[in-house]
Amino acid sequence: MTRELKIRSIIYGAGVAVYLCAILVTMNYTLPDMARFVWFLISYLLIGFDAFRKLEENFCQKKFLTEYTLMVLATIGAFGVGRYVEGVLVMLLFELGMMFEAYTTDNAKRSIESMINIRPEFATRKVRGKEFKVDPAALKIGHTIVIRPGERIPVDAVVTSGTSSIDTKALTGESMPQTVWPGDRIYSGCINLSAVIEAKVTALYVDSTVSRIMEMVEDAQNQKAESENFVTRFSKIYVPVMLICSLAVMIYPPLTFSYGNWDTWIYRGLIFLIIACPTGLVMSVPIAFLGGIASAARHGIVVKGGNYLEDLAKADTFIFDKTGTLTEGVFRVTEVKPVGMSEQELLRIAAHVECHSNHPIAQSLKEAYQGEIQETKVYRMREIPGYGVNATFEGNRVYIGNKRLMERQKVDYDEVKKTGTPVYVAIGDKYAGYILIADQVKEDAKPTLQYLQERCRAVLVMLTGDTEGASKEVAKEMKMDYAYTNLMPEDKLEQLEDFMGLQDSGEKLVCVGDGINDAPVLARADVGIAMGALGSAAAVEAADVILMEDELSRIVDAIKIAKETLRVVSQNITFAMVVKVLILILAAVGYFGMWEAILAEVGVMFVVILNAVWVVRYQV
């Protein structure tokens, strides 16, 4: 619970305690009217503290006719006619509804308390041949740093010595590691995989890529307009209508058919104003959204606020990252093409030669082989960054790598031009075949996108840092409307802004991603959806909805729950309004008093709570 919500709860609780004490004392003792007034006024001010604060904020923003305006006017009117108990009770019920909403949002946010783990904890600086661990923020432009295998690059730099493979997935989304040579730029947040490299710092820590991404996330969240909830939209019409009606009740009868009977009709007008308070209405909406959020949680979906369910139900544009979102984000062998041997034999040789490598390609080869690997048969293994590996296996020198390695060894090979990464194998100077490795599309990706196109009539867009070839192939398979490739985080944000600029006020845009490179667009979209199980902490922190199981089909579940929640919200609002109108009519003609109205409000709340339970139990 946030500090602000704790303070608000304590003040509200204190107000309720004072109110109950005031009722008990006035029931057992006869107090002067002024003493009763002061006692109930203290409880009223404590219970309504947050309502007065919101009213002040609305006035500062020139929003004069809101539910808070009506609530304060009505309860002040109750005090004006000496109905202290009823006036405080109306405010108590109203604030209870607002507290429900606040607790719902706070609980959802507290379930996502991940710290951003992309920022490096230390840097190794080299000075006159000696190495020192320092805070990355202490590095200056021109300093020499050393990055060992497995370490995260602390700041943007240029490689001065060594060759290695760099995992850039955190920034670009590209699964395949990139090879860097002396003179190549490297970026903070990426991970060094295979060899020690030295580099010269080219940007301060505050100006490095990771820091700039997190600044973009904060800026995007500040630019993101909070969607107006139903109560706020409804109040713009409801409040002025109720004020006019209450004035009509006070003024019209004494001037016409009940000429001169001002006291009776002013009293009835105040009763009308008090009954007009949207307490049941205010309660009905957050309770329904609470049910929707609870239902989503049952299905492994964390929603950070009811307004995101509302926006999700209206979404008509969906933007997806590729790697780790539409695809598995891991390499698998998709084709084995041997020359002069069986497929299993080629896999056996490749898996043994790669057995000592930590490269993702080596891991996928060992996984595809599935047999027992006898490491004692492999010796003199050598890994050449940017080319591949070679080792002696069963008396033969075996070379496994890309086409550059084949050309370097002067092996006559057949170049493969298919989607994926071909791994060529040569035994001595003879070509032994190739193994194709590619990222696999998730099983539930196609049916999920098909649902969005058919049921939501959605525009489907891919924004990815991956290369054009593999990305366009996936976009074509998924029948997506647009695909943009080779994008850095700032490029993704720019494209997203272009799509948001084409929307009108009733249309909503959803962005789905899993990496830190997706965090800015997740924060800026109307609804950001993060793949929570394997996604980066930055993406989870920036998103509004988190899929805890990394299953794209959960998006369909979330949309169904959102639409069902809005249906229940509509039912609750209709029921609350029908009861409200009936009570107002009866009050205007003198058949309904304040206590009867309050009992009716409690009845409305009981019914809407039961209706919200249906959403919690909703099965997608």
From TrEMBL:
GO terms for cellular component: plasma membrane. Keywords: ATP-binding, Cadmium, Cell membrane, Membrane, Metal-binding, Nucleotide-binding, Translocase, Transmembrane, Transmembrane helix. It is a multi-pass membrane protein. Its EC number is 7.2.2.21. It catalyses: Cd(2+)(in) + ATP + H2O = Cd(2+)(out) + ADP + phosphate + H(+). The keyword Metal-binding applies. One of its GO terms (molecular function) is P-type cadmium transporter activity. The chain crosses the membrane at residues 12-31, 237-259, 265-290, 573-592, 598-616. PROSITE patterns: ATPASE_E1_E2. It is an enzyme of class 7 (translocase). It is found in: Cell membrane; Membrane. The keyword Nucleotide-binding applies. Residues 119-218 form the P-type ATPase A domain. Belongs to the cation transport ATPase (P-type) (TC 3.A.3) family. Type IB subfamily. This is Cd(2+)-exporting ATPase.
